[in-house]
Write a structure and sequence with these properties.
Blueprint: E1 3-9, H1 15-26, E2 33-37, H2 44-48, H3 56-66, H4 76-87, E3 89-90, E4 95-98, H5 109-122, E5 128-132, E6 147-155, H6 159-174, E7 178-189, H7 194-203, E8 208-213, H8 216-224, H9 236-247
Helix pairs in contact: 1-9, 3-4, 4-5
Amino acid sequence: MTRIIAVTGKGGTGKTAITAMLMRHLVKDDNLVLAVDADPDTNLPDALGCEIDHTLGEMREFMLNERDNFPPDSNKESVLESKVYEAINEMDDYDLLVMGRPEGPGCYCYVNNLLRGIMTRLVTNYDAVIIDTEAGLEHFSRKLIPEIDDLIVVTDGSKRGMQTGERIRQLVGELETKVKNVYVVANKVTESNRELIEQNAKDLDLRLLGAVPVDKIIEERDLKGLPLFDLPDESVAIKEINNIANDLNL
């Protein structure tokens, strides 16, 4: 069974950093892992320290522009599926699929409808799939990957941040998405605000999966534009991410 994990949250909370550190844990046991960067800003490759050749956005553009030129008896879903596999960037320890930003003004509903079935089949090729989603709530309505085992909402720990987690939990229920578990992870936590964060989560009946502390190593790497995928074991953030991963039985 493929374990599907999605990481979401407001912009600036560090969801891409959390995704990259979870990836670091996942690949250690020789798991077949697919990372999906579903954020149009495309920050995950930088956090993982890799370069990409193709994006799924390019393939969507191809289908949108060329679909009327295909022979009448052609299977458009099969054509798009081959393009999806072409968009997968193969790294040494994992595969990476970058959604990319749509370039044209056209409606992508047709292509997205085809993609839902393809993505459902694609993920079964992996032991684990981790998705760095775009900030906000709108993308949940598209349901390109409708079944998610663990939805992790990254928050800065503020009351408003926790309320975002509550809204996402409510939205997941309203859209009848197949999400088994919804968790909150507080990021950039200090000793002075840890207790209040725990209380805020408790007040909103949110499952606080972990509290990732402020990490000087990450701050230094961010300043230099260095990746987070190869953070050292002594990183305090990595230690907490390992605890989170263990709690999830990853």
